[in-house]
Amino acid sequence: MLVHRWKKPLVLGDSRMRIVVGSPEEALTWLIHEPNQGTTKWQRAWTACVASIKGQVGAEDARTAVQLAAMH
């Protein structure tokens, strides 16, 4: 059961694919499949999602980090 739902889900992707991410848990799954895992944006998003799941930061903070990581 997901307990860290975002107020507004993120819609990620391009003209070929659309991915809707609605929580830090779902974002971790998306981040695992991202090809640019060595970037600072990716690492910040991963850290923010893990911290949100652990209750160390708010879920909306993790959403912002994932949104920034999705911008290429």
Describe this structure in words.
The chain is mainly alpha-helical. Helix content is 49%, strand content 11%. A two-stranded antiparallel ribbon has the order 1-2. A hairpin with a 4-residue loop joins strand 1 and strand 2. Helix 1 runs antiparallel to helix 2 and helix 2 runs antiparallel to helix 3. The termini are far apart.
Rg from alpha-carbon coordinates: 11 Å
Count of DSSP H/I helices:
3
Largest sheet: 2 strands, antiparallel
Helix content: 40-55%
What is the end-to-end distance? Answer: 31 Å
Helix-strand makeup class: mainly alpha
Overall 3D form: globular
Number of strands: 2
Q: Residue-averaged pLDDT, rounded?
A: 91
Sequence of strands across the biggest β-sheet: 1-2
Given as residue ranges, the uncertain stretches (5+ residues, pLDDT < 50) are none
Strand content: 5-15%
**Order of helix and strand elements from N to C terminus:** EEHHH
List its salient traits:
72 residues; globular; mainly alpha; two-stranded antiparallel sheet
SSE diagram, text form:
Layout: E1 10-13, E2 18-21, H1 24-32, H2 40-53, H3 59-70
Antiparallel strand pairs: 1-2
Helix pairs in contact: 1-2, 2-3
